[in-house]
């Protein structure tokens, strides 16, 4: 074997080598061949367990690193017998059962990392004053119980990571005395009580306490720690006001997340002096007052800003043009911030995510919004506003991952000739299903909406003073796929639906007829039975609006027939007097029959004749202009 002639070897690093050996095999081979071994590092070697007792013969071991193997057994007691053990790292090894408390009390142990062993249980015991631990990492294990007050005895402790465990009780106040702390992650446990001030931890860089049941106020001293870079206190029950704190010119706070608490009052002006700030999340609290978005421009490194769901009124107007307009901002969330317009947001050059939902923004979505971020915008949420349409011209970029417009006052949706893909969510169709009861109180012109130009079957149509209860949907010439949601067939006020030239498959809902270019569709009104189609693998034709595509002679023949028929009728009307009189009489009868009010009017026949003559004059004018051209 490879190790037989290496009896003097003291350090063995075989990380990433595929050994694929059983526990008894590799443990006995190492212990018998390498009696002087100090460092054993076999991370990611496809080793199996259990850890054989023969390893206990390696009396000089100081470092054991077996991360990423399938030990799948309990942690043996014999590690406590290693007099020189400094590092014990068994990350993601499938360890099971309860960890012996004596492991935490090894006098020489400095690094203990048992993270990502989800079936590993245990509690943290009391610590002696001579404990040497610098790192305790139990992330994503099933450890539980309280943290002992004696944790303050570990004077050398610099990192403690207990994220995603089951610890309970208060955070020991004795942790304040740990002056060497650098990283503290106690997030997503069941800790309660108040937050220790950590005012003596001048080296502290990360304090992560999210996802607990912590209450009380936030210690003001945390914001003044000279080395603090990340402070995450979200998803707790913290309350009270945030007061101004001494500003440090060299403040190093990069991430500040106080979201989902019960904080109130105004946002401290001190926050606007944190020049290194990259992420600021104050959402889902009770902050109040008016805050000018312009103030955040001082934070030139800011990439994430979330002020959503407070009692704030955000003023988005920019008055000081000398300041750069958020040069690094990538995410801006201002949901429920009492916004009424889109003003001064078009200059966010690097924006990728924009949430303006649940506000009072009225009018149309401006066409410049699609160019926000210079091509970086991927998610746009404008739901729960008072928007009535989309300003044209617009072209939704194909880079969009999320476009949320639900719960507005939209009546016309025209997304044709884009590069949108994926399926049409059933929830979108359901949002469009009209409830006539909403309009029962409308009167006069309140249920009309100006003039709308929509492309219907390739031709522009202008709807003048259309009823707002009508719905127009145009998803044509995209790359939508899957089945057409049944809810679209339930649109009781649907006036126009165009979903042609996509890749839809399946059954066509009733009352839909604009389905050309979707070769996977079947059933009525097509002459293709779904029972005989089998799997649809056909590729639909390309976008019909592309200039380089071949001529479609079906369209040409239909157009020629239409022109010949219409031309014949117009020729007879123009040159044949007898035909013209008969046509006039028939048109008068038609108007009289269908336009007579139920109450009746004496002069209806006279009015209908005048209307018929007016229509004839219009036809003559049309013919004359056509001949002149």
Automatic annotation (TrEMBL):
Gene Ontology cellular component list: membrane
Entry keyword Ribonucleoprotein: no
Database matches in InterPro entries: Leu-rich_rpt, Leu-rich_rpt_typical-subtyp, LRR_dom_sf
GO BP terms: defense response; response to other organism
Subcellular location(s) of the protein: Membrane
Pfam families with a match to the protein in the record: LRR_1 (PF00560)
Keywords: Glycoprotein, Leucine-rich repeat, Membrane, Receptor, Repeat, Signal, Transmembrane, Transmembrane helix
Transmembrane segments: 555-576
Keyword Cell wall biogenesis/degradation: no
Protein name: Receptor-like protein 34
């Amino acid at each position: 074997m490879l190790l037989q002639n290496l009896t003097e070897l003291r350090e063995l690093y075989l990380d990433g080598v595929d050994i694929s050996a059983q526990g008894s095999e590799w443990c006995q081979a190492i212990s018998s061949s390498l009696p002087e071994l100090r460092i054993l590092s076999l991370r990611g070697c496809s080793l199996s367990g259990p850890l054989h007792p023969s390893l206990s013969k390696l009396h000089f071991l100081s470092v054991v690193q077996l991360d990423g193997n399938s030990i799948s057994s309990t942690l043996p007691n014999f590690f406590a017998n290693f007099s020189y053990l400094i590092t014990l790292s068994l990350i993601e090894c499938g360890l099971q059962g309860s960890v012996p408390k004596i492991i935490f009390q090894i006098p020489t142990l400095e690094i203990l990392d048992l993270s990502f062993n989800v079936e590993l249980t245990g509690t943290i015991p009391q610590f002696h004053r001579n404990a040497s631990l610098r790192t305790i990492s139990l992330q994503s294990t099933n450890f539980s119980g309280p943290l002992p007050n004696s944790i303050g005895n570990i004077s050398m402790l610099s990192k403690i990571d207990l994220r995603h465990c089951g610890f309970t009780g208060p955070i020991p106040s004795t942790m304040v005395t740990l002056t060497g702390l650098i990283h503290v992650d106690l997030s997503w446990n069941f800790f309660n009580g108040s937050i220790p001030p950590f005012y003596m931890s001048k080296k502290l860089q990360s304090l992560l306490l999210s996802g607990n049941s912590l209450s009380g106020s936030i210690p003001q001293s945390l914001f003044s720690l000279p080395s603090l870079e990340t402070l995450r206190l979200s998803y707790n029950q913290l309350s009270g006001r945030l007061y101004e704190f001494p500003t440090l010119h060299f403040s190093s706070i990069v991430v500040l997340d106080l979201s989902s608490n019960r904080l109130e009052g105004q946002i401290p002006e001190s926050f606007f002096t944190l020049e290194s700030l990259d992420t600021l999340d104050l959402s889902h609290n009770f902050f109040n007052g008016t805050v000018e978005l312009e103030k955040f421009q001082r934070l030139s490194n800011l990439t994430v800003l979330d002020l959503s769901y407070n009692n704030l009124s955000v003023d988005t107007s920019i008055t000081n043009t000398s300041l750069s307009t958020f040069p690094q901002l990538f995410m801006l969330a201002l949901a429920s911030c009492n916004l009424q317009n889109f003003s001064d947001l078009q200059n966010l050059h690097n924006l990728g995510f924009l949430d303006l939902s649940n506000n009072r923004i009225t009018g149309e979505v401006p066409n410049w919004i699609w160019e926000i971020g210079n091509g970086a915008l991927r998610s746009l949420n404008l739901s729960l506003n008072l928007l009535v349409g989309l300003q044209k011209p617009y072209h939704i970029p194909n880079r969009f991952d999320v476009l949320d417009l639900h719960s507005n006052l939209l009546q016309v949706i025209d997304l044709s000739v884009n590069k949108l893909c994926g399926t049409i969510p059933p929830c979108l169709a359901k949002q469009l299903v009209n409830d006539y009861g909403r309009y029962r109180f409308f009167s006069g012109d309140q249920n009309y909406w100006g003039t709308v130009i929509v492309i219907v079957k390739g031709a522009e149509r202008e709807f003048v003073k259309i009823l707002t209860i009508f719905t127009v949907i145009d998803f044509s010439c995209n790359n939508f796929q899957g089945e057409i949601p049944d809810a679209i067939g339930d649109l009781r006020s649907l006036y126009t639906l165009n979903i042609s030239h996509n890749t839809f498959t399946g059954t066509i809902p009733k009352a839909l007829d604009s389905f050309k270019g979707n070769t996977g569709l079947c059933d009525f009104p097509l002459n293709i039975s779904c029972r005989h189609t089998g799997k649809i693998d056909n590729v639909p034709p390309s976008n019909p609006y592309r200039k380089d595509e071949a001529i479609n002679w079906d369209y040409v023949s239909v157009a020629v027939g239409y022109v010949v028929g219409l031309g014949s009728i117009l020729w007879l009307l123009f040159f044949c007097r007898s035909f013209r009189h008969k046509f006039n009489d028939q048109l008068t009868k038609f108007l009289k029959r269908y336009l007579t009010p139920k109450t009746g009017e004496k002069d209806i026949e006279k009015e209908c004749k005048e209307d018929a003559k007016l229509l004839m004059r219009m036809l003559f004018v049309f013919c004359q202009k056509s001949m002149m051209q």
